Target: Reverse transcriptase domain-containing protein
Amino acid sequence: FLLGTNYQRMYGIEIYNSKNRHIEELLNEFRKGQFSTTITNKQKLSLLKILRKNRPAFAIGEEPLGKIKGHNIELYWDVERPYPPMLRRPPYPASLETRKEIERHINELLDMDVIRYPIPRIPHSLDKLAKAKYITKVDCMKGFHQNGAKPKSMKLLRIICHMGIYEYTRMPCGIKNAPTHFQRMMDTIFQEEILEGWMVVYIDDIIIYSETWEDHLQYIDRVLSKCTPINLKISLKKCNFGQQELLALGHKVSGLSLEIDQNKVAAVLQKPVPRSIREMQYFLGFASYYRNHIKNVAHITSSLYKLFSKDVVFEITKERRDAYERIKHELTNAPVLILPDFELPFKLYIDAACSQGLGAALHQRQIVNGEPREGVICYISRQLKDSEARYGATQTECLCLVWALEKLHYYLEGAVFEVYTDCTALKSLLNMKTTNRHMLRWQIAIQEYRGNMTII
Model:
């Protein structure tokens, strides 16, 4: 039978010639991608059309690795550094209101050609996914290796093995400035998309999020359309399309919550108790990556960190073994964190102990499935310094409040929140007239925020 083109357009019918091997191969290969099971067939078809349109952006089968145009790396000896040391530190955290003003000012300076661009924080990056209903993760195939190296830099990228000496012609993994260079390059390529607020880039991982399917398709199309001209190749088998939740940056993330990826945890916890400083550093570094999920993690690990002190013999005592097992337990039973809603008030719980250190938890009450629910956004903690250990109980609690406000400045600046403490003298201490320089400085710091205090 015959169908007119008007009927084909009306009902979304597409007819392929069986002899057209390219189309058949393309459809088969795109099935290797991981697609959400919650989207309809119509939504899946519309997504496949966009993927087919941007076919050159994907590295499928035995295709050669892409080489990104215009972003070759250049290495220098330590004689003259290309960037001053102060630019190597991460940016200061800023609240939602402050970020908008910073972005406006930075864009003005960029337009005037006054400044130019010089690794985002993972928790702040994932916070942006709040309220997202569709999430897509796109992975750059062997990301670093898609950066070419300039001829003068190749002599610094030599490796040796039993087969001889070789030089990298592309950026290898392992050099100190590789992540920074790749992050800067990706931020430059996708600067417009990042500023529009629907895309997160962390080195070679691209996360696209939206509240509607139509916007999601448009965003995916825009990202892939930028990859093709610069020869940036995407690994299809590592892509996740249109998911409600997915694994990204070591977490299981959705538009509502943030959870530890237990597959990552299981691999580390199967290892025996650390038998050297290097093994202990690896374990504590892993635990520190998930410190926002663990209450009072600094207190628990204090005895383990003492192993790194000078003239301390490496010995796993009962106290240290208990701390090690406690961290393992906390990692496997960590709570699911909620993503912040900056339009709702926060709750800040603080607790300080002269013998243990400082601790705080940021909570928020949100409406989930029509019912109010209070959840944890993050935990923070640290040890007391030697000078701080001599403070009284009330002073230590005041120090804890000031430190928590500074640490959680990203969330609390300009926001409405309640402070909860069990120190009855703290409120009067903050309102009293004093000549003590510590108290004066703390009182001024606290006045910048819009928080109210509740004694529990």
The domain at 59-77+93-249 is CATH 3.30.70.270 (Alpha-Beta Plaits). DSSP finds 18 helices and 18 strands in the chain. The chain has three domains: 59-77+93-249, 262-332, 337-455. The first strand starts at residue 34 and ends at 35.
